[in-house]
Q: What sequence folds into this?
């Protein structure tokens, strides 16, 4: 909020092309997406960043509901004994748990975990609620906050507390659960590519990278401009692991009692980090118009004698556009236009409209695209259509650019030596074959710091020689990851 | 979800007129608004109840944004030292705090409170963010979960964890802060009366009932049908108490450094409890149409030979109405219409549309109002308008009924004896005068279990004799409270 603090911010921004890691931290704070909290590894999501999250929520929630899901709210605190019911699950999460041990002035008999994920508490409730095949499927999602005690944290990308949604479903058959896990993966993919303009590769995780307690984990992996992959979302086929641990049974049509088949799936505020790194440039953030908190900003170009005239025109223009777009008007007197341009570019506003006395005379507006900095003169008459068209162009060209980057930075490799070279130079995704033996996976990691990102679906049948041992292997994407 | 569990539910519902307390718990669980969680005092908000909360959120959020507020997200965990900075604040909340003492496998150096409210953490951030008068006002709201270790809990009304929104604002002057506290009180009143159809009395709290750390607390009090008051929301003028404790200073236009003036304000899932108790009847819930998760349900009245014809008509009708209303279609084969009627009445669906072969012939639909059980034949031609009109009628007549109840159950009293009589018989609000001495307040409480609900604004000037001591006093509402 502090103007005194931000006065010189645009000038201080580290160049993304020089040091992406520093650029990232700089831009997240300067654009007021988030700030460090006084609690280890926690952040404050500031209004501008939260508006982005609200847009993400609205667009995802609509998709969840369109695919038959409903929302609910389960408790934040989970008794330790519940977490322990599924053996792999507790092993995976116990080291990261924050424990409530005192409440209302007394030491608790049993420690309560601040949820690191909600399978345990939700499965307990499902065991109470589900009786018959008529109760299935259960298709519930929860928007919630999560705590995982992380050692190394970065704003949005890895924080002790984060916001997310977690879908938890129960089905009568294995096939239905598998179908759900894949359906939600596709919902995520379509959302990330169409709304966030962030292309992803999707597929199955290796055993070592799968969710604690799942039979299979599917993931979406985006490629950041430093060549590292970002896991942007996951869906899990839980099989009957939790159903057996929590005794979630139903009476089927054939009058026999069966365990349900389950899935869970989630994306988090981490996506905001992905969005920032995918599209930003040396001048700051670039938000795809569909998700941008502010889609366009109107900046008056005025002098002392034209302040009233131009101010009125800018306000009028903004009011007209506000019915269809998310609009900001920058009428601040204490800053010059150039300063404002820098600031709104740094904040990633996709489109800037400038209006001055000459533009008023000519019935036009100057439009400047954030992504290409292209300057256009557009007539005020049908400005809504023009703006709409420009925003669509920006959206698709951001996607195309990111898609091109992903394609150009995906390398076919056939030896560990080649992998080492790629990781030393460009980084990016490495497409190769792998035998699914954890020993070979570890060998790649030791040599290159790259891990299995996914085994893509289209190629589950495609076999080749394992990049490490030469035995038959499946098509696999490796990369260094956030 | 379980049909087997709910099969006989409508018949088991305790009558509200006989035992409101049992009716409340019955109906909340039978209608699947919420369920008990396996953690002491916590609840699960089930999909039907959560849909209600989503409607509440959407309607409130729109109002917050229209009054210039933005949303943000602050950390769940608050260091103990922060809570202690404002003396009254910690004294008020410490007994109810749940403490995180271990994280990531280690005992923490400082205990972290799971937020019982967020003033402490937010004020810490505001001290970082606010520098100049240009940064003011700060108008931030947060939608969040809260933990308070309550001794006695009831679904929605008082739970260890609850969902709420908390507004936290900072201003340059005392007058602006006071104006904000009163503005948000009015936003809440308008929302509760127009959307929840729940009339409230508003005013200032007594010293003993005000928020820990505030200079003044304003509240909205609704009257439940058992004659007890429910505090449905509060706004606080925090003065400079927190600003001084957290050193939130700004450089004013006159170049001097000043402490900001603050407010906070919140409503929670508790309102759902108020909504349930305000409108329900012996048959179950009654939801005002504007807030109802399902505004109307279409029930086919079919026989074996008309199943296809009537089913198609019901689906067609529902599809047509779904573009404007929140519609459910009950095409279940395993239940008879009468059973369905009972269930949807119990669930509080404001309007039921029945359609059978004769109705199809006549081009009509049978509409049944949940509140009056009135049956109407409406032509299919302009059904959208008819349904809209009926829903509006239901909304306003629910409000009128509740308003009448509040008026009829507000009693002018002049002695403690009269108060005792009222509390022994009808209960309700008692309008009287009070000198603002805590001793007299306590005397009333000891004799009647009634507490000061509010000192209404319209009568801050109206003086009379204190109901206890006879000294000059202000108009004051007393009631027993949830």
A:
């Amino acid at each position: 909020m502090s103007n005194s603090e931000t006065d010189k911010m645009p000038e201080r921004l580290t160049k993304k092309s020089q040091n992406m890691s520093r650029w990232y931290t700089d831009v997240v704070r300067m654009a007021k997406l988030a700030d460090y909290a006084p609690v280890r590894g926690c952040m404050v999501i500031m209004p501008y960043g939260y508006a982005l999250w609200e847009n993400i929520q609205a667009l995802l929630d609509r998709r969840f509901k369109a695919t038959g899901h409903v929302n609910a709210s389960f408790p934040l605190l989970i008794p330790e004994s519940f977490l322990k019911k599924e053996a792999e699950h507790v092993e995976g999460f116990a080291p990261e748990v924050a424990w409530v041990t005192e409440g209302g002035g007394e030491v608790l008999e049993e420690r309560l975990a601040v949820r690191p994920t909600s399978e345990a508490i939700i499965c307990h409730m499902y065991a109470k609620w589900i009786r018959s095949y008529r109760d299935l499927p259960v298709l519930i999602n929860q928007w919630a906050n999560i705590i995982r005690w992380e050692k190394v944290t970065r704003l949005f990308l890895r924080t002790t507390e984060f916001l997310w949604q977690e879908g938890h479903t129960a089905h009568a058959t294995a096939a239905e659960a598998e179908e759900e896990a894949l359906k939600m993966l596709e919902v995520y993919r379509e959302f990330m590519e169409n709304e966030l303009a962030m292309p992803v590769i999707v597929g199955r995780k290796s055993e070592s990278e799968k969710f604690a307690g799942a039979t299979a984990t599917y993931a979406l992996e985006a490629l950041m401009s430093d060549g590292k992959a970002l896991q942007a979302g996951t869906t899990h086929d839980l099989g009957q692991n939790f159903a057996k641990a929590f005794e979630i049974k139903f009476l089927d049509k054939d009058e026999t009692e069966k365990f349900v088949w389950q899935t869970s799936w989630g994306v988090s505020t981490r996506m905001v980090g992905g969005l920032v790194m995918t599209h930003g440039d040396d001048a700051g953030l670039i938000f795809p118009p569909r998700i941008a908190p502010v889609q366009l900003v109107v900046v008056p170009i005025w002098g002392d004698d034209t302040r009233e005239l131009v101010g009125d025109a800018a306000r009028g223009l903004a009011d007209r556009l506000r019915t269809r777009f998310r609009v900001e008007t920058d009428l601040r007197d204490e800053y010059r236009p150039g300063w404002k341009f820098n600031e709104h570019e740094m904040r990633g506003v996709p489109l800037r409209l400038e209006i001055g006395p000459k533009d008023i005379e000519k019935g036009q507006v100057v439009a400047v695209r954030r992504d290409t900095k292209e300057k256009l003169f557009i007539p005020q008459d049908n400005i809504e259509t023009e703006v709409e068209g420009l925003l669509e162009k920006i959206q698709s060209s951001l996607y195309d650019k990111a898609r091109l980057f992903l394609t150009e930075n995906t390398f076919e490799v056939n030896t560990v030596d080649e992998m080492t070279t790629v990781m030393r130079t460009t980084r990016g995704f490495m497409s190769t074959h792998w035998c699914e033996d954890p020993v070979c996976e570890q060998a790649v990691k030791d040599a290159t710091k790259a891990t299995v990102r996914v085994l893509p679906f289209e190629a589950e049948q495609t076999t080749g020689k394992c990049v490490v041992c030469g035995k038959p292997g499946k098509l696999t994407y490796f990369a260094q990851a956030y």
Remarks:
- Chain B has three domains: 3-279, 296-391, 410-479.
- Chain B has a mean pLDDT of 95.
- The longest strand of chain B covers residues 161-171.
